[in-house]
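pinned: reference chain
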Amino acid sequence: MELAQDAGLTDAAGVTHEPAAGLCRIVSLVPSLTELLCDLGLAAQLVGRTGFCIHPRESVREIPKVGGTKSVDLERVRALAPTHVVVNVDENEKPAVDEIARFAPHVIVTHPLHPRDNPGLYRLLGLIFHRNREAAELTRRFEQAWHDATLEASKLPRENVLYLIWKKPWMTVARDTYISGCLAAVGWDTVPETAARRYPEIALDMHAQDVGCVLLSSEPYRFRDRDVLEVRRAVPPGVRVTLIDGEMTSWYGSRAIAGLRYLADLRRRLVAA
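pinned: its structure tokens
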């Protein structure tokens, strides 16, 4: 079987990629994947990133910016003459991705929906860019973090949690999102149990009735201490309300390794408190 037919080379759009020939010119339009590409040892081949691609800081600071995840400067991308452009279904607009596909030889589409999708993501990029050893090491570290986090969660009773990502209106995450999957791994089940949209608007007073904790994310809306006070006044007594690092819940890729450990530790501390 030829390597190009390896199932690990098929992206979220169903496209099977060939392993890259020679050095590549990579543009990443996904912050967490820019970080992953750097952790795979590909920083020197990154020629473009979004303004939200801020990690690892020392590696990305000299890489040219091409706009935002949803406001990509297509002409800037074209001028960089990329061989590969890495995109995500949720983070990048399809019309922009379709236009990029007109001039970029290879567009790699990603769409992780659960933390368990990360090893496949490592393998996909590792195979395409000849970083198999680095991808295998990330997979080993991820599996250890997953084992540790889920073992820690098994020692505590499961708990419903409301995870807020926006205010005016209040918005949360549905259970089919990557964020919800990360929280479930450490024993937190997000509410509502069912939702028509992946990021539904909610009534705070109603959805906080049957939860043990309300988590206020740092992204996309950056909740602050004053928001914690506001939410505490709106929820029943005894419901814990705290800020949470959104990168640790929503950034897939290599950040998921630290994210699982962060979430397990946060839940343990909140229960203890």
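why pinned: The mean pLDDT is 95. DSSP finds eleven helices and eight strands in the chain.
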